[in-house]
Amino acid sequence: RKEVEQDPGPFNVPEGATVAFNCTYSNSASQSFFWYRQDCRKEPKLLMSVYSSGNEDGRFTAQLNRASQYISLLIRDSKLSDSATYLCVVLEGNFNKFYFGSGTKLNVKP
Amino acid sequence: NAGVTQTPKFQVLKTGQSMTLQCAQDMNHNSMYWYRQDPGMGLRLIYYSASEGTTDKGEVPNGYNVSRLNKREFSLRLESAAPSQTSVYFCASSPRGTGVSPLHFGNGTRLTVT
Q1: Cis omega (within 30 of 0) on the bond before A10?
Q2: Closest by alpha carbon to B49, among B74, B27, B26, B72?
Q3: What is the pLDDT of residues B64-94, one digit of tens each?
Q4: How far apart are CA A101 and CA A88, in angstroms?
Q5: Which of A4, A45, A72, B72 is the one with CA 20 to 30 A from A101?
Q6: Residue B107, CA atoms < 13 Å, CB-side half-sphere
Q7: What Cα–Cα distance (Å) separates residue A27 from each residue in A36, B16, B36, B94?
Q8: Cβ–Cβ gap A46/B103 under 8 Å
Q9: First and final CA of chain B: distance in angstroms?
Q10: By the 8 A CB rule, do A12 and A110 touch?
């Protein structure tokens, strides 16, 4: 079983739509959680950290559900520029290791 | 504003050749990492260094060696390259410690082994 699992998509949505991605993780001792964005053939870039109480950054909202071991990312009012692959990342604090999901591809269409 | 710098950006090797991928960070981070990314596989950890003077294997260490030269630099060496090592390689660093400590990535090295 993979440490972190994501639906690979692609999610094809029109501009202005709301879209949500989920990610599940297997280690209940995982310490920190992040969403990264990766554009084609470029390095992943931090989109947002995910806090226990949930957090929002503009059009992006992240939630953590420790009981069910999943995190989510909600994007409101999608823009063409949101087209990318979104990576779920989990940090296991004991070993200082970051585990990556395979990514969810989002295509926002005009 | 350099952050994490990787060299080279592109490299083509013949099977059996060796090379070293260089990585340096100027953010005074304690931890450094090497990942490889293959289509459909996501990022997989090759080696990491939790702090200066220590290195540990990740998920896919075979065929690689690393050196944490000092706090800034963490290099990845392929002693005898194989076609299976064709991939995009990312170096990353993290401050580590208390609180939320995300990874910061370099631009990547695109390696082809023929």
Answers
A1: yes
A2: B74
A3: 999 998 999 999 999 999 999 999 999 999 9
A4: 5
A5: B72
A6: 8
A7: 20, 38, 22, 21
A8: yes
A9: 35
A10: no
Query: Which chain A residues in 11-30 lie under 8 Å from chain B, judged by CB atoms?
Result: none
DSSP result, chain A? --SEEE----EEEETT--EEEEEEES-TT--EEEEEEE-TTS--EEEEEE-TT-EEETTEEEEEETTTTEEEEEE-S--GGG-EEEEEEEEEGGGTEEEE---EEEEEE-
- Cis ω on the peptide bond leading into residue A14 (within 30° of 0)? no
Q: What is the dihedral of CA B60, A42, A110, A23, to 10 degrees?
A: 30
- Secondary structure class of B71 (helix, strand, coil): coil
* Token pair for B47: 């080696």
Return the residue of A nearest to B105 by Cα.
A43
Residue type, A5: E
Instruction: Give me B29's structure tokens.
Output: 């981070």
> Per-residue pLDDT tens for B96-110?
765 567 899 999 999
Q: What is the DSSP letter of A29?
A: T
* Distance of alpha carbon B1 from alpha carbon B92, whole angstroms: 15
